[in-house]
Specification:
Aminopeptidase; alpha+beta; 2 domains
């Protein structure tokens, strides 16, 4: 993909309220595909898709396209037109199906979105939730809505001499990735693909106002970090990691500085990422300490594009699932 086209796509995504960082060309994995629709020579619809095969890359004849937080187009009618055109193209290419998950907020009391009416689309999972904070209020109002314990942890970190700086070097990225690996070991989850994280962090901190890696330090020691990224006037919390300290928590001061970064770069909203409403512990409870509004997104949907290949895809997926269970 040319640099000119990448800049054109970036400019379009920054103009769309339903755009997401994960739909930038720089966020792609190997073998990802980009679909776009133009009107009068201008990009009006963008979808970044990963390629999926139930038996892995060694069996490429049965494939599907998967979009994470996309495709992107604020105009619902134009979004449908782009999806229809893509479906026709993928049918010709003998692609089994494509999955979409645009970042559309689901209205209360509704079950979905009219763009998925009819028998062509199949819901393939529940809608996800997130927590979003309005940044158009004054700094005092924003802090005033923090939970009391959240404000206390920020002040305690400040009194202990914790400082938060924006990373600018590969060595600082490595420090954060080391924290992430240690957190994964401590919590018992599989860490993200380290090289993928390294590339995305390097892209965001190397691009003007696209994002930041914030590092919390005390006595020149990295205690924790937070990766944030911006698209348009919204900023997302992408990754976070910190070491455990008996009398100190740096997560709160990192998030408070992330909010300051977002407002300084023209953002009107901060998205804390995945959220479980009503949680009384864990990451969701931590995020709720900053206030914000819970938003529910529409569920992901699937469009079968080649009946024969789709049957094979499902058959091979069941075989793979059986092998994994055994």
């Amino acid at each position: 993909m040319s640099h000119v086209l990448i800049r054109e796509i970036e400019s379009f995504l920054d103009s769309q309220d339903t755009a997401h960082l994960f739909q930038f060309p720089q966020w792609t994995y190997p073998n990802s595909m980009c679909a776009l629709l133009r009107q009068n020579g201008k990009v009006k619809w963008v979808g970044i898709f990963g390629m999926q095969s139930p038996m892995g890359p060694n069996f490429p004849l049965v494939r599907a396209w998967i979009a994470n937080r996309g495709p992107v187009c604020d105009d619902a009618e134009l979004w449908r037109a782009g999806a229809e055109e893509l479906a026709q193209h993928l049918q010709q290419e003998r692609i089994a199906h494509f999955d979409v998950a645009p970042d559309w907020i689901q209205s209360p009391g509704t079950s979905g979105n009219c763009s998925f009416d009819g028998s062509s689309w199949q819901q393939i999972g529940p809608g996800r939730c997130s927590l979003r904070l309005d940044l158009t209020k004054s700094e005092d109002e924003i802090i005033g809505n923090f939970r009391k314990n959240t404000r206390y942890e920020i002040r305690r970190a400040e009194r202990a001499g914790v400082s938060v700086v924006s990373a600018s070097s590969d060595s600082e990225i490595d420090e954060f990735l080391t924290l992430h690996i240690r957190l994964a070991e401590r919590k018992g989850f599989s860490p993200n693909l380290i090289e993928h994280m390294r590339q995305k962090i390097r892209w965001m901190i190397g691009s003007k106002s696209r994002g930041a890696l914030l590092i919390a330090r005390m006595d020149n020691c990295a205690l924790g970090g937070a990766v944030i990224g911006r698209c348009g006037r919204r900023c997302w919390y992408v990754w976070g990691a910190n070491d455990r300290h008996e009398h100190l928590s740096v997560g709160q001061i990192l998030q408070s500085r992330a909010l300051l970064w977002a407002t300084a770069h023209g953002c009107s909203e901060y998205d804390f990422g995945g959220y479980t409403p009503g949680a009384t512990s864990g990451t969701a409870w931590f995020k709720a300490g900053f206030g914000g509004t819970v938003v529910q997104f529409i569920p992901p949907h699937r469009r079968a594009t080649h009946a024969g290949r789709y049957r094979w895809f499902n058959f091979l997926s069941r075989i793979r699932a059986g092998r994994l269970r055994s």
